[in-house]
Write a sequence for this structure.
């Protein structure tokens, strides 16, 4: 569905029309506010929308709660980990970097094609958000002070080994191992 050009975020002055049925109205679609990067979502606080530097879908949107500094990053900063503690700070720096780089090569393989200068600009913009807490969909909650470490992981992705998924033989071997596990 194409987004009409006059769409505005919830909390701004909408014209009061009620829509629904999958139709865009000014400010909402089916009761869910639609926002673009740089737009605020206003309720009892402000959630500022931003585009995370890595994503697997162009509609991916992150949010910064400007009152608390909590940064919601969707898939960005996710990591494949052996163990999942409650706090990302409890993961060793090496395991975290390896896990985040690998995750990004799987979830955002286009990162291998990006211009280094433009990527650095994107990462700098995220650093300037100075989050107090980082909440990724695929990582334990992380203190905001880890942002530079996270961004360094992303900066390493373009030169990392591209992810190659398992072929049929490998898949069948994995299935055999799974089904052999005690139930
Ligand atoms: Fe996800």
């Amino acid at each position: 569905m194409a987004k009409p050009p006059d769409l505005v975020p919830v909390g701004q002055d909408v014209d009061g029309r009620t829509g629904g049925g999958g139709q865009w109205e000014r400010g909402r679609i089916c009761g869910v506010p639609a926002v673009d990067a740089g737009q605020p979502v206003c309720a009892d606080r402000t959630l500022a929308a931003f585009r995370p530097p890595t994503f697997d879908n162009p509609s991916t949107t992150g949010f910064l709660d400007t009152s608390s500094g909590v940064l919601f990053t969707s898939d960005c900063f996710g990591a494949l980990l052996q163990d999942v503690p409650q706090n990302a700070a409890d993961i060793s720096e090496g395991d975290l970097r390896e896990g985040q780089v690998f995750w990004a090569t799987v979830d955002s393989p286009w990162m291998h094609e990006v211009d280094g200068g433009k990527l650095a600009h994107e990462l700098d913009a995220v650093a300037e958000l100075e989050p107090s807490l980082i909440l990724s969909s695929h990582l334990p909650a992380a203190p905001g002070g880890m942002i530079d470490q996270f961004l360094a992981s992303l900066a390493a992705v373009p030169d990392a080994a591209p992810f190659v998924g398992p072929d049929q033989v490998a898949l069948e071997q994995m299935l055999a191992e799974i089904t052999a596990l005690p139930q």
In short: Residues 75, 137-138 surround fe (ii) ion (CB under 6 Å).
